[in-house]
Amino acid sequence: MSARSPSAMLPAPVAPSLSSRARRQWRQGRLAWMLLPTLAILAFVIAYPAVRAVQLSFTSTSLINPISHGIGFQNYRTLFHDSVFYSALKNTMVFTGASVVLGGLGGLVLALMLEDFLGRFRVIQTVLLTPWAVPTVVAAFLFRYMFEESGGIVNSVLLRSHLISRAVPFLASPKWSMPSVIVGNVWVELPFFLLVFSAGLKSVPDEIVEAARTDSAGKLSIVRHVKLHYLKGPAIIATLLMVIANFNNFPHIEAMTGGGPGISTTTLVIYVYQLAFSSYNIGYASAVGVVWLVILLVLAVGFVRTVRMETT
Amino acid sequence: MLDRLKSGFPTMHRGTGRSGVGLVAILACSAMVLAACGSSAPSASKPSAAPSSSKPVTITFANWASDESNTAPGIKAAIALYESENPHVTIVSQPISFSNIGSQLLLEQRSGNAPDVAEVQGDYTAALAYAGALQPLSSYAGSSFVNSLVSPSVTEGTYNGQFVATPWIVAPFGLWYNKNILAAAGISGPPSTFTQLEADLATIKAKYPPSTGMIPFGFDTTNRSYGLDINWSLMKTFGSTPFSESGSALNVTTPQFSSYLSFIRLLGTNNYDIPNQLQGHFRSIAAVNKVAFAIDGPYFQSAVQTTNHMTNSQFYSTFGVTTLPAGPTGKHYTVPTDHQLVMFKSATNKAAAWKFMKWLTTSPQAIKDYTIPYEDALPPLKVANASYASLVNNPNFNAFKNVIEPTVIRPPWGPKYNVAFPPIMTGVESAMTTGTPLGQIEATMKSEYATALSSSGLSNG
């Protein structure tokens, strides 16, 4: 008997028939056409407002002036000399950066601490996720009343424990207002990071952790050299989502401080709202909105490229 | 061929399918772009239908009275009463918060779905009038009606020579004070000058340290047009006119305005007031006797009584009201916060809308059942009807009518007011909460106003 080569033992590949190839192509084409309703809705919800905003940014449109004129780049020239715009941009960066960093670090620490909780202690994780379910405006009012100078619980606790001798004007002082707003925002957003990192930790292969333990690696060492590596992808995606969300975070700041005192907590989204609906200046508000959109797009493209590099 | 017929669909190559979808997507986006670039003109006002007493009529009424807990039951009952007396009329009340109603009405007007009638006030009226949204009322009101109204309220509802807003309640700001708090601090009565006020605030703070939660002087310094309304009276008291509708720059680098800012800084430095708080915040605290002085309108009474359920006699024995203190000029000033009713040009049945407006503002029934008990405000009529004359004869109403109302001045409400209030009020808050030199704050106000004015499309001067 002659020996058969390994390749001879495998069934010969069968060329797909013409009809099955055509059926596959037809199915893919039909699936592509099914995207049309979604694309139409996205075009209406995203493309129309964006194009209209760009168009309005080149006009002097105002809610109280029935006549509007095209004014070219006048709004943009004004914007680049607008000190309030730069203050709002700075506040946006501070608010977003601090909220994402503190929320991310807090979520990571909690996820690592709760990772090994078993049995009835897993309910702690559920409890820690509940702030995410609280409506943003409700949480904002909650923290507003907590931080009140007279009667607020934070000052009451600090005064009674003699950590301070007089009440701190958390929301009435430019020095304290932004940190107070950030604290309230981190409370709401930390559960999101906790959820993402908890899910990410489940993807860490047990055998790698066991191997590390076998090599006498300590807990901190395992976290640093093993687990963080697997959490990099989820961290990047969660960070991108939260950066965009916090850039656009209107209800939290509006409910807590309204952008004040002064402009100490006025972010870009608060400034655009005030321009459009308090000063009725739609054209200039649109110009600020377009610049804000460009900033977000640059951030989003940068993050997406980073994610692609990580995955490849 | 047979397969194609059997399938009932055209055969699609992968590339053909995707390029077809892409082409349709591009066409859809292009359609959206063309729609976006198209001008959107507000719809023309609908022709007014000939009034008919039997034909069903629906009147949409946008207001904040039905949005606030202390007035909502009253306005609901008033509307129900009107509908019972006019069975063919249905009033559809649209509750909109006071802070949002100005922008909301402008947006609705530009979108072509403005209400028939709306409750407005101050700068909101000016904005709507400038936008050309309001129906002149003279032909509906007639001279006898207008002559029956108190003169300042008629002036307040007149823009560009046209009577466009009929007064509903008369409500100037006054200086409210808690008699018990003052008595406990050894203060015999309310201050008549700012010098006396500063001394009283220091006395109250010494008597009631911050740990007691007492707010010596509660008034609104928020960054909104209402915040500037309140502070306008204080600015005038110090002899300052920081802004005018015809002006091209803020007039804030004056000794008078600096004196006003110094007073504001004193309030912040000594924690006499809480910055960046809405007026409503102080009303609820005043209801529990934790505010010594407050600047507010006559509706302060109904807000406080809704919170603490005081009777009228208890309220009058606890709270008093007087003019705002006089400053270096020796004169007292206050600003009106009169609630007005306007009719939009797009109203479908103007005659019916006017009939409702007239009833709500001047009928003895509406005044007795709503204006006085729920708004705790003065009706806009020169002569009180016998059916409610006794209701307006109380210490606080008499103070508003006889002492405070004569000090009313109207701020320069108009298109530039909405451009001016952000830099002014952020500067006021900055003076109250920081140690930034006042000169620097004033310079920043001027610079920010110049930037805002240049972007607003409004002409300079």
Fold and architecture overview:
The complex is a heterodimer of chains A (312) and B (461). With 312 residues, chain A is mostly helical. Chain A has helices at 6-9, 18-33, 36-56, 74-79, 83-114, 123-129, 136-146, 153-160, 174-201, 206-214, 219-247, 251-256, 268-277, 282-311. Chain A is flat, with a radius of gyration of 27 Å. With 461 residues, chain B is of the alpha/beta class. In chain B, α3 links the parallel β1 and β2 (89-95). The longest helix of chain B is centred in the first third of the chain and has 24 residues, at 14-37.
Q: Approximately what portion of the residues of chain B adopt beta-strand conformation? A: 5-15%
Largest sheet of chain A: none
How is the main sheet of chain B built? 5 strands, mixed
Largest interface: A-B, 68 and 69 residues
Instruction: Tell me the series of helices and strands of chain B, N- to C-terminal.
Output: HHEHEHEHHHEEEEHHEHHHEHHEEHHHHH
| Helical segment count of chain B | 19
Give the low-pLDDT segments of chain A: none
Fraction of residues in H or I helices of chain A:
55-70%
User: Which class do the helix and strand fractions of chain B yield?
Assistant: alpha/beta
Tell me, briefly, the overall form of chain B. globular
> Which oligomeric form is depicted?
heterodimer
Helix percentage of chain B: 40-55%
* Count of strand segments of chain A: 0
Distance N to C terminus of chain B: 77 Å
